[in-house]
Design goal:
The structure holds three protein chains of three kinds. By secondary structure, chain A is mainly α. Chain A has helices at about 15-35, 40-55, 90-120, 125-140, 145-155, 160-190, 195-200, 205-235, 240-245, 250-265, 270-290, 290-300; strands at about 55-60, 65, 80, 85. Chain A folds into two domains: about 15-70, no CATH class; about 80-300, MetI-like (MetI-like fold, Orthogonal Bundle). Chain B has 15 helices and no strands. The chains are: A mainly alpha, B mainly alpha, C alpha+beta. At the A-B interface, helix 1, helix 2, helix 3, helix 4 and helix 5 of A face helix 1, helix 4, helix 5, helix 6 and helix 7 of B.
């Protein structure tokens, strides 16, 4: 190869520097246009939620005027609107908790057992079952609402207050269990066989090994799943909206839905306050266990 | 039986003991409804013969009929064509956002932005729509688009959108309502692609990027010639997954137009041109009580869904469905 | 082909000081090795020359131009990564052509150059394959081809031979050296293998913990190491180090290691004593002679264990509580337990100041 002759005709160093700078600017411009500007509305919305819930009036959309706790009155007195009195917030909150906790408990129980079996046990149809679970994950559940309605009726759970809520809890748990099992299976998979064998060699029975060695190791996984299913039950709207017609048995999302219809043009403040109240568990859990939840969301995206 | 045999039987049965609760739940929430939907699609179940049906699934008052499908396919339902058009508009538009916009988004956040903290902040911000409880997300949007109190119109004016182009009501004025429908779901969907693509981008060996830089590529050229070609499989995965997901999603539309409309969600959605296929099925069942017809409508989606899943397994194979963000050539 | 100068360059990652105050001048067409243990900062330095890292302090100059702010794209460098970093979705041809395509070189020109480079590196029969279909040695040559095809000013290599098997490594060492001499490209080569550096480079920069220890030609590193680190790093088996002090008794100078004492010539003794009295004596295993008969001014010890290596053997000699390794021709008479005497000529002795670790002689 001959020594390079390209050197002549190359741009000077200052030109190269300027062009590098321009490219850098263009790059950041794109980031701003694509990633920053579109997310501003979303951030504004959250800002509004916070601000509006504590102000009696909001000027210019975001500037608060008149800090007040009036909007939070719903916490201690029933909400009246003309002739209609809406139910007290606390029983509704309890209903929501009932569904959320119930779902979390069910999901954790069933998915831990299933996850362990899928990970550690050998049986015929194991691969088939795994494929089935993944397939379910891809299948959108919301189009089955009509049939579920029939089933709910057939089981005698429709229109029966807490029994209905329980039925909803069961159905919702059933919808989340396949994915939860998959995730727990993943946690079990990450425990090497050696540890179990070491425990057995050290003198544990299979049961003792499970209790003292394995369970502690997947506790983070269980924690993650319980948070995830709690939040799932907490935010469940469609099932309750479709199947529960008696106000006493509403959950928070459904109550908020109806309140929005009524109060939208009158009392944004109260709506914001209730919304913020409802969103508190989600915000708390998300900010404290962010890394863990991110793993879940990456592993089990539904929409 | 001797203790030995008990143990042997026990050991064999153990997996099934562990799996039984799973089977029960899946049957309740998935299998039974699936079969029932198929059956219902061929019946004329509605509010009139509903109670009889509950008492006895084979009551003569519920007839097996092809009427539902005639309505759907032979144009006997005049509104179905509109629904189809709206659905196609909705799915393709949001799909474009979820597959392509999120690609540019993740390249921006995961590659162009060097600072880990800023990258993290942006990622969390874009995840907010997805993790917020649906009704809150709906509430926030309803506020945002409010002509008096909200900031949508002001925000757009800031970017030079002339006043004449802004609608009186984002909720009711077509095509603005449809644009709103697309944007609202787009924000949520974009985060799906962002998660998958970001994971894939992070798994590219940094030496590959450095080699391209040394070879003389600017960061744009690296994105175009190295990163994007390596993201082919994740892109296919996102497309496939989101198509199915979008065909069946209607929750946000229901919440926003339902709560925002004041009146029934069905009427408002129809008027605003945002009645998508899955919502149509839902409203036929729970607003008009025509359960059989609604089941038939959703049966179309079930069939498409099953077909797509079979397709995914064929194209991707089991492994790739589990690791969509691994880059492969 | 350019001169590369690192002008007091430092790189900090938060609190971690990867490279500290490095000053290096690499002449046009020179082959310089950056040698040191892992974590010493040599790869970081290479990446700074490439422009992938920006120095925290200091400047980098190509000839007399300050390129510190320039991204890699604008520096006209070629680089071979340890992992080769071949683009998996492109064929060998496309991999090599990539830099030229980015420069918007006309198609037939690209074709000519790629084929030329491929021929030079003997990979012209592989042009249609994908990287996953190549062996390690072939991948390495493709990476080299990609780096060379744009006729770079500087060629950077990050441990390019470490993923190859031993035989291929030795073969490629000679190949690379010959290639560099023929193309006359300024080359910087990172390695942790001192044999590799010694055999290939014109000059070696030895680094440790981010700092330059010594920058010299191989034989100077071997004969005149600047400090303990360099002395111990260069040469295999490594140099023996024995701590002790210089004492003067009646005008005679001695090196006292506790377990033995050596008389030093007055010249040497005076020279060392003037600099320091607490010293470390360094002797290369190949410079100590073993004798089964008592000798004057020799170190007395007993053979602890022998390691036959075929061509030579390493004899571990225990003196008191220290072990001195000696490299010598195979000799069946040297068996464990035997008493021996080690003779060292003064011109092969290295002395280092115990506290500063710098060489005195």
């Amino acid at each position: 190869m001959t020594p390079p002759s390209y050197k002549r005709g190359r741009r000077s160093i200052s030109t190269r520097r300027v062009m590098a700078l321009l490219r850098s600017l263009a790059k950041y411009l794109i980031v701003v246009i694509v990633a920053v500007i579109p997310i501003i509305p979303i951030l504004l919305m959250y800002g509004w939620l916070l601000v509006q819930s504590f102000s009696s009036r909001v000027v210019l959309g975001l500037v608060p005027s008149g800090l007040t706790i009036e909007n939070w009155k719903f916490l201690w007195s029933p909400v009246k609107m003309g002739l209609k009195t809406y139910p007290n917030i606390w029983p509704i909150t309890l209903n929501t908790l009932f569904v959320a906790l119930g779902e979390a408990a069910l999901v954790v129980l069933v998915s831990t057992m299933a996850g362990y079996a899928l990970s550690r046990m050998n049986f015929r149809g194991r691969v088939g079952l795994m494929q089935f679970i993944i397939a379910l994950h891809a299948f959108p559940s919301v189009i089955l609402l009509i049939a579920l309605f029939i089933i709910l009726n057939k089981l005698g759970l429709y229109g029966k207050g807490y029994l209905t809520l329980m039925g909803i809890m069961l159905i919702k748990a059933g919808l989340d269990i396949p994915m939860a099992s998959w995730i727990i299976k993943g946690f079990f998979d990450s425990i090497p066989w050696d540890i179990e064998w070491a425990a057995l060699v050290d003198g544990c029975t299979r049961w003792r090994a499970w209790r003292s060695v394995i369970v502690p190791l997947i506790l983070p996984g269980i924690g993650a799943i319980s948070i995830f299913s709690f939040l799932s039950g907490w935010s469940e709207f469609l099932l309750v909206f479709t199947y529960v017609k008696d106000e006493t048995y509403y959950t928070l999302p459904v109550l908020i839905y109806h309140l929005i219809g009524e109060f939208r043009f009158i009392n944004w403040g109260m709506l914001a306050a209730i919304g913020l109240f409802y969103a508190i568990p989600t915000l708390i859990f998300f900010s404290t266990s962010q890394k863990l939840l991110l793993r879940i969301y990456v592993g089990g995206i539904k929409r | 039986m001797s203790k030995r045999r008990w143990l042997a039987v026990g050991r064999k049965a153990l997996p099934f003991i562990f799996l039984t609760p799973l089977f029960i739940m899946i049957s309740l929430s998935w299998v039974a409804p699936l079969f029932l939907t198929v059956y219902l699609g061929f019946t004329n179940l509605n509010i009139k013969n509903f109670l009889a049906f509950i008492r006895d699934f084979f009551t003569p008052r519920v007839k097996i009929t092809m009427e539902n499908f005639k309505n759907i396919f032979l144009g006997q339902d005049p509104y179905i064509a509109d629904v189809l058009k709206t659905t196609i508009l909705y799915v393709t538009s949001v799909l474009l956002i979820n597959v392509f916009y999120s690609l540019i988004l993740s390249i921006s956040i995961a590659y162009f932005v060097r600072n880990e903290i800023i990258s993290m902040i942006l990622r969390v911000a874009w995840l907010l729509p997805r993790i917020t409880p649906g009704i809150i997300y709906a509430l926030l949007w309803l506020w945002f688009i409010d002509p008096t109190y909200g900031l949508m119109n002001s925000f757009l004016s800031l970017f030079g959108v002339p006043k004449a182009w802004l609608p009186k009501s984002w909720l009711l004025d077509i095509p603005y309502s449809q644009i709103l429908m697309i944007i609202v779901n787009g924000y949520v969907g974009a985060s799906f692609g962002m998660i998958v693509y970001t994971a894939a981008i992070k798994s590219i060996p940094p030496d590959l990027i450095n080699a391209a830089l040394v070879d003389g590529a600017s960061e744009f050229q690296v994105a175009r010639r190295i990163i994007i070609p390596l993201l082919r499989w994740p892109m296919l995965f996102v497309t496939a997954w989101q198509t199915m997901s979008l065909l069946a999603s209607y929750e946000y539309i229901l919440m926003i137009w339902g709560a925002g409309g004041g009146g029934g969600y069905a009427g408002i959605a129809r008027a605003a041109g945002v009645m998508v296929w899955s919502l149509y099925s839902y409203s036929k069942a729970f607003a008009e009580y025509q359960y059989g017809y609604a089941a038939a409508i959703s049966l179309i989606l079930v069939v498409i869904g099953l077909g797509l899943i079979a397709l995914y397994f064929k194209i991707f194979g089991f492994r790739r469905l589990m690791e969509p963000s691994r880059i492969e050539v | 082909m350019v001169r590369v100068t690192l002008d007091h360059v430092s790189k900090f990652f938060g609190k971690v000081k990867a490279v500290v105050n490095l000053y290096l001048e690499i002449r046009d067409g020179e082959f310089v090795a950056l040698l040191g243990p892992s974590g010493c900062g040599k790869t970081t330095t290479l990446l700074m020359i490439a422009g992938i890292y920006k120095p925290t302090k200091g400047r980098i100059l190509f000839d007399d131009e300050d390129v510190t702010d320039l991204p890699p794209k604008d520096r006209n460098i070629g680089m071979v990564f340890q992992s080769y970093a071949l683009y998996p979705h492109m064929t060998v041809y496309e991999n090599i052509a990539f830099p030229l395509r980015l420069k918007k070189v006309p198609k037939n020109e690209i074709d000519r150059k790629v084929k030329e480079v491929a021929k030079l590196l003997q990979i012209d029969h592989l042009l249609d394959r994908k990287p996953s279909q190549l062996s390690g040695g072939q991948q390495q040559r493709v990476a080299l081809g990609r780096a060379l095809v744009k006729e770079p000013d500087v060629l950077l290599l990050d441990e390019p031979l470490s993923n190859l098997d031993a035989k291929l490594r030795i073969l490629m060492r000679a190949e690379l050296k010959r290639l560099q001499k023929e193309l006359k490209i300024t080359t910087v080569y990172v390695t942790h293998d001192q044999v590799e550096a010694m055999s290939m480079a014109d000059k070696i920069a030895v680094m440790n913990a981010g700092r330059l220890q010594q920058y010299a030609e191989p034989h100077d590193l071997y004969n005149k190491p600047a400090n303990l680190f360099v002395a111990g790093f260069i040469g295999a088996p490594p140099m023996n180090f024995i701590e002790g002090s210089i004492r003067e008794v009646d005008g005679n100078y001695f090196f006292d290691a506790g377990v033995f004492t050596l008389k030093l010539s007055n010249e040497l003794g005076e020279l060392i004593a003037s600099k320091s009295t607490d010293v470390v004596l360094g002797i290369r295993p190949e410079h100590a002679k073993i004798s089964l008969i008592e000798r004057p001014n020799a170190i007395k010890g007993a053979i602890y264990v022998t390691e036959p290596l075929g061509r030579d053997m390493v004899v571990n000699v225990k003196v008191g509580n220290i072990i001195i390794k000696v490299l010598t021709e195979p000799n069946p008479a040297l068996t464990p337990g035997k008493t021996v005497w080690l003779v060292i000529s003064e011109d092969k002795m290295h002395f280092f100041d115990k506290s500063t670790e710098k060489a005195i002689v």
